Amino acid sequence: MMPSTQDWTDTWVNCPLGVVEGMFAASQNDPDSGWEAKAVEFFKEQLKQKDAHTWVPSMNDVPLHYLKPNSLVKFRCLIQDMFDPEFYMGVYETVDPSTKTKVLRCGKYKDVTECGVDFNPRNTVTAERQTFYCVPIPGENSWVKESYAGSSQARVVPSTSYVPSRQKRSYEEDDDMDMQPQKQREPHAGPQSPTEHHGNGDCKRQETEAPSSQAASASHLDLNFPLPGEKGPSCLVKVYEDWDSFKLNDTLEVYGILSVSPALSALADEKDTSSSIVDPTEYMETAEEQRVHSPPASLVPRLHMLYARPLPHNNPLLPCAALQDNSAFLSSTLSEMASVRAELLTYFTHVLLGDALAAEYLILHLISNVYTRRDVLPLGKFTLNLSGCPTASSYPERLYQILQQLVPSSYYLGMSLQNMNQMRLVPKKDYVANRLVSGALQLARNTSLFLDETQLEQGQLDTTGVRNVTALGNVISWQKVDYDFNYHQMEFPCNINVLIASEGRSLLPSDCQIHLQTQVTPEHMDEYLSSIHVHPQASSQLNKFRLYVSVARLLDYSISDEVTKSVEDDFVDMRKDDPQSISAEDLHRMLVVARLLSLSLGQTSLSRDSWLRAKHMEALRSSRMEQHKCVNGNEP
Fold it and tell me: Quick check: 272 pLDDT over 80?
């Protein structure tokens, strides 16, 4: 009788090592069977089944003590660091002490071998694997986490077979301790989401706190999250093939075999105690490096990668596959984009205190995306400086909280002198611990970075402050972050949507500045803002906006030869009337606005109408900026 679908799922999800070892055993009679590739392909095929990925528990929303050791799990993450390759026993032989029977074993996807290993080099095969240090996607908003957790069909129960009491903490308790050093190092930088919930709430344990001695033992471990106050697990991902295809800061969904053996922590402890009495040449790692590279498995579990899916986005409302591969979804979405845009424009006009033109530009900013690079120039970026922001009723923070409900990942950075002078924005290499210490600009692609310049007060920027402002300028102008490797800097490209809220013109560069013309008086600000805030409960409307923003970012775009000729003729005509009236930079901005305007309407090529509309919008914006200059003579 064939096993049921659920039984079969239980086999490859709950006991993936059994599947791997079965294929390894079968390959012993056929050395050229290519069993390793077949094992990986097997799991890929299983995950292609309808909704199969929802059967696999996620480390992002299930506490570690609910996950079965050596089971298949998934982890939505960012590669924060890449460690040196390591060697392991790919094949080894065990000897049964009673019968003296020898059995060949597979060491792949394991951290700890079985007892009774015969270290006969004739049968032992040493192999190499790479280790990535991965963290949850920085700044991922609560609506994303809750939606992913809500779609899970994985069945999890508390696992007590392997977990000492120290390990049975929930993420919140672990992170409250582990983030303390980082909290002291990096001052609080912004408002938290009004709806910070832990995913999979029914899994929250009702257990007592571990003894204080155990709490103290883990409090020194910094999980190296890029942003302060982040929750969730970090993970050492063991990669067995094609590791050169992965890059630092890639976002992935990793499917792999979970390893949380207490023996890993015991081995690390043995290293610590023995390293002082053995020949120092036997241990090339420093104590600090051992602590970082071999943390307790209860805090930093190991995940042996079977398959990793690159994430072009982390919006759970969109299909996993590329838009072009899902024509039915794409056509239905495109047909509705113009109407959703009209609703979003009305909503943003209210949010921006009655300013419809600023609302147009805010939509264009939110859907901008670096789609290619020409030499060093990133094309597609659209950093918006929203000047004239009122400071009454903490308006910039309220604006951020509204945008936070629409984009998958975001971060609010209050540009106070204290933050600028004390925060670490740029990642820095620690050669003692041999790791990359994260910074707040180590962000995933398409993260929305909200810079609140209204927080800046009079005072002196120190060396760190100047370096941080320079780093922000590089992100805005060149979409790159220069990581600090002490003796040199290494350039890492990024794709971050930067919105600057300021009272006057920002001290930072931007692609476009628009001065807010508010229709609301400050004394009525609180009442006005509370009346327009879309509550998370109104999910159908919010979901339409969330889908719209993410789809518009991912659309392809082209300009026909005919429209290109028309644009060139327009530019010549404008220069003919007044050569000083328009520069090449102005033309570039008009083309960016025209591209984003087309995409915002669901059009994947530039039409003559969209070009004329973009010119009109830019003319209105320029006219407003000129009027503002006349009124405020000191404005640059």
Answer: no
